[in-house]
Every structure is written in C-alpha cells, then in structure tokens.
Give the backbone structure.
Amino acid sequence: MTKPHEKVWKNCLEVIKDNVSLQSYKTWFEPIIPIKLKDNVLTIQVPSQFFYEWLEEHYITLLKKTIKKELGSEGKLEYSIIMENNFSSTKPYTVKIPTTNRNAVKNRSVSMPLDIGSKTIKNPFIIPGLKKVIVDSQLNPNYSFENFVEGDCNRLARSAGFAVASKPGGTAFNPLLIYGGVGLGKTHLAHAIGIEIKNNHPGKTVLYVSSEKFTHQFIEAVRNNNQNDFVHFYQMIDVLIIDDVQFFAGKEKTQDVFFHIFNHLHQTGKQLVLTSDKPPVEMQGMEQRLLSRFKWGLSADLQVPSLETRIAILEKKMYTEGIDLPKEVVEYLAYSITTNIRELEGALISLIAQSSLNKKAITLELAKQMIDKFVKNTAREVSIDYIQKVVCDYFDLPIELLKSKTRKREVVQARQIAMFFAKQLTKSSLASIGAHCGGKDHATVLHACKTVNNLIDTDKRFRGYIEDLEKKIAIQ
Ligand code: ADP
Ligand code: MG
C-alpha cells in the first residue's frame, strides 16, 4: 500500500514529467525520495546541496505549481539534504538529520571534498534562495592585483585576468589559461583574479585549488565511493581556479572527471581559470578533448620580466615589508637574478635576514656575497646587461649610447670592453653579444675581443681599467 507522501509525490512526478525533458527528469527528479507528509508539508530528500540549489534555481515554479495542485494553497515543500563533512575542516558544521530519515542517511551518507554546510532546508517557498553553501575560497590575500606589478612580461595575462574578474563567465576568456615558467607569477595572478571576483561579486562561489589537491580529492572520493558528490560539489562552483593543470598529464581518470566538470561549468556560464607551466600545444599526456577545450578561451603567457619590472617588483616588496635598501643593491639583485621572480624575492628576503642577524648594513658587498651563496647551485652567470651597466658606470657613459650604433671613440672602446667581458663571462653566442651591443655582427665581437686582448698586453693604463672592471663585475 502506498503511503500518503509517496502518493502525493507520485502525482507530482506525473505533472513534472510532462513539463521537463526526459533527461532532466531522470537527472533531477528520479533521484528524489519522498520522506513524509505532515501538516500539508511534503518532505523530499535530495542527494546534495548542489541538487537542492539546482532545483530551486530551475524548477521552483514548476514544483510550486504541482505542490499547490496536490496539497492546495496551504501546501508546502521541505527539502532534506544529506551531507556530512569527512574532510578535514577548519569550520565545523552540524548535520541536521530529520529523525524519520536516520537509516536512509546512514546508508547514503556522503562526504564533501571541502567545507560545506549541511542542513535541512525548510519551506523554500517562503525564503527561496536564502540558504547558500559556504565554500572557503582558499585564496591568499597577499596575492592581490594590487601586489602584482604590471610589466610587458605580464600585460596580456594581467588584463585578461582583470576582464575576467569584472565579468566572470561573461567574457570570451573562458577558460582563461595562464601559462609560463617557474616563479613567473602564475599562482599569484590566479589568486588575484579570485580575490578580485570576490570583491566585485561577493555572492559568487569562488574556489582556488591546485591540480594536485583536486586529484587527491578525486582519488579519495573514488575510494569512498562518492564520486557523485565530488562532481556535484565542483559543479556548483561559480569560478573554478585550478593551478598547474600540467599535473593532470597521464592521469586519465582525473582528466575524465575534470572534463565533465569543465563542460558543466562552461555550459552553465561559469568561469574557469587554469594555469600551466606550458602552453596547451606542449602538454604531453593530456587528452585531446581536454586540450581542445583549453584552447576555447584565451591562453596568455607570463614571460621573464624585464630589468625595469624586476626593479619595480623589488621596490614593491620592499615597500610592503617596510624596508629601504640602497639603490645599487636593488639594481644588483635585479641585474643578477633574471629568470625567476620567486628567486628574486628570496634573495631580497635572505639579504634582509642576513643583515639583521649579523647587524650589518646592507651593502653591495653583502649583496654580492649573499647572491653567490643563494644562487650557487643554479650555475649562475653574469648577464650581458649587468656587464654593460658596470662598464658604463665605470666610464660614466649612459648605457643607451653603448647600445647605440655610435662610433664615438670612447663609446667604441667601452663597447668593446663590454663585448670582451660578455664573451668571457657569459655563455652567450658572439651573435647575441653583438645584438646586445649596438646591433653588431659576430665578426665585430670577435674583433673587439682581439683588440681588448692586445691592449691589455700593450697598454698599462688600459690593463688597469680591465682589472678594476674585473673586480667590479666579479661576484664573490
Ligand atoms: P608561479 O606560480 O608561476 O611559479 P608564483 O605566482 O608563485 O609563480 O610567483 C612567485 C613569486 O613571485 C610570488 O611570491 C609572487 O608574489 C611573486 N611575483 C610574481 N610575479 C609578480 C609580479 N608581477 N609582481 C609582484 N610579485 C610577483
Ligand atoms: Mg605556481
């Protein structure tokens, strides 16, 4: 014999079936279990918070109508959502389980991958949409746009990020894929977008997750047999930021589940922000269908920052740390560490630590010693830029002249000396040295090296210059 609540729900379903597509019916209505009918309130059990939100967003009018039809104008609907937090959580939530439902809950208990509130939602008709899932966005407030120095190296990625942040899901940049080498600011920019979205659109659910964490959660979900909850959780995020997607390479199952989440989010106008250490074309071990989706939006790269940007980044950092360094020290750091902003910042921090530990003033000398220790293992080489700067400072020439084509005697000599040191101290080719020094060809560089060697042997004063410069350039 059918119980009253089952009968009422069955009647509702018949109406609903006529009003939605078969697919929607199967997805959103078949999994619903009627639980009780009391005082004209029908309680239905839904598998997740996401499920409830979906129903409320898309089918509330239909549900309202059918309930009224079955139970009269006093009729109400109540949802029971089953969830519990198995994952380590910083904010404990209580799980309210309707007493009549204890067994069912036990059998179908689910766990969510991140902090989520769990509750019974009453009378959605009275206060629809008031209950909101709380997701900790996992954003680091220090990685803001404010702290992200703009330069030629990051202009496109930065402005695309900004556009996405003002209209998440509403630009052509979906997904926004930010790629670039280690320590160039991918993670920082990804957080900045998330933070900006939270500022602009406080109602949006933003989530930053590393691809490692995502993979780990997925494996855990498979082990606990609650993949569906994993997927539902990610499908209700408005702005999903996944860092270092190259880590998905070779992980077929993870790629598969991510593919489905991606599609769902993309189709429902949600924003995806991805980062990677390489462009899509170079990602090995990644499924084609996923790669092709990565290319749907915009891929923007982060390049190695120019000298000016490196100096600006150091100055910003000094400003936020409230410290002041001699200009020559800042320039020295910026000249010496060229390809990794993390290392650049690391050097600055070590320098400050060193000086406060030893109670020494931060001098160029200290910086040189420290840099040597700091980047010893990375086979550091002096850059051509640095050599040019030291040579120009020494002869009191503007660096632009040295890089120009001018044939003024004193400039020609300084240029030749810079070429000589560049050949000696860097691994750069003759052609590349020439290109840096006034657009000369490799033969000119070779000739310069010979001239300098001759002068060292024959001109005592000239040898003095070279010895001075050697000391200045040397990093000890
Ligand atoms: P990636 O994820 O590309 O390896 P990160 O985002 O972790 O690099 O950046 C490394 C460090 O450099 C971080 O401390 C970050 O704040 C800093 N950084 C990178 N780019 C910038 C920038 N444009 N302005 C200021 N700091 C930056
Ligand atoms: Mg990173």
In short: The chain has four domains: 4-92, 118-302, 307-379, 384-473. Residues 49-71 form the longest helix (23 residues).
